[in-house]
Amino acid sequence: MRIYANTNQRVAPSAIAAHARRAERIGYDGLNVPEAVHDGLLLSALALQATTTLHVATSVLVAFTRSPMTTAVAAWDLQAYSGGRFELGLGAQVRGNVEDRYGAAWSPPVGRMREYVGAIRATFACWQNGEELGFEGDHYRLTRMQPFFAPEPLEGDPIPIHLGAVGPHMTTLAGEVADGLVTHPTNSHPRYIREVLQPRLATGAARKGRQDAPFALKVGPICTVGRDTAAVAAMREEKRRSLAFLYSTPQYWPSLELFGWGDRGKALHQLTRESRWNDLPQILDDEMLDTFLLSGTYDELPGTLRTAYDGLADTLVFPMPEDPAEDVLAARAIALLRD
After folding, report:
1. Signed CA dihedral, 207, 210, 204, 105: sign only
2. What is the DSSP letter of 188?
3. Number of Cβ atoms within 10 Å of the Cβ of 284
4. pTM for this entry
5. What tens digit of pLDDT does each residue of 284-326 get?
6. If residue 6 lies in a helix (H) or strand (E), which one and from where to where?
């Protein structure tokens, strides 16, 4: 099992190199970099430049605000530069952000993402194998690649393409066209993976006869870890607030509904409509928190995670300490999690 760290969306380009080196020193196999406040491809380049063994993944890159060709060029360059340590994670983003934050055109995402991944794969095949570039779909048309613009073939493994998915159709699409799925914290519970995600991924894989193809499930469980029980308890209440906010969003209700708590999601959503933000944590009671949150000290949490996700996940996200003084504890925890 591979262990990855997440990068806070506020980590600036000027700080990402030190952040990545620290993750490598602790012993993480990889680092997820977001696309929120800063550019995900720029952060990836800086993280790869600063490290020698750490894999770096966009988690996830906003796809539809870029053409498939520009994404393919950047991914190819990052993979070549790093010697095979880059992973391309793609996501659709919601309509409001695509149109009003990025000023880009929106269209129903599932069919468009199918073409987006197909266009990138066609471009990769052109560059790697010399195949003629001839991808034509409803959303994208890539039919021109002069030798002058074609990069050299890559050595080693091809660039993995992972999709971030929450809804049923995008999750099924991941099984159909991607090399892996990046879970959202709200759809990372082991029961949800077994009963919901895995059947959808299997359906998608069956559509294209990919049942035996390698597929990576990268799971980011909701975790709280600390050096002692007091620290864990304090962080637990912070997670109650953040989870209550997350579950106020209707798109994240399926895991609530799986456990019979669909009414809690509606109550949380209503509170946000009334701007009663401080009342949200009261809805997410201890039973719900115990269900969705995995907690423990650095010595305890690895065993809890192994029990929960053994056989379910290829990659787990383990919290990176906010305090560098705890790095040695995190390193020991990662070793326990692997063993």
Report:
1. negative
2. -
3. 26
4. 0.95
5. 999 999 999 999 999 999 999 999 999 999 999 999 999 999 9
6. strand 2-6
CA-CA distance, 21 to 36, in Å (whole number)? 21
* Structural contact between residues 274 and 190, judged by C-beta atoms closer than 8 angstroms: no
Band (339; pLDDT cuts 50, 70, 90): confident
The candidate with the shortest Cα–Cα distance to 30, out of 140, 132, 122, 162, is: 162
Instruction: Report the distance separating Cα 232 and Cα 226, nearest Å.
Output: 5
* Burial degree of 263 (CB within 10 A; 0-12, 13-18, 19+): exposed
Domain boundaries, the chain: 2-222+296-338, 228-295
pLDDT of 156: 86
Q: CA-to-CA distance for 300 and 329, rounded, in angstroms? A: 11
* CATH 3.30.1330.60 matches 2-222+296-338: no
- AA letter at 65: T
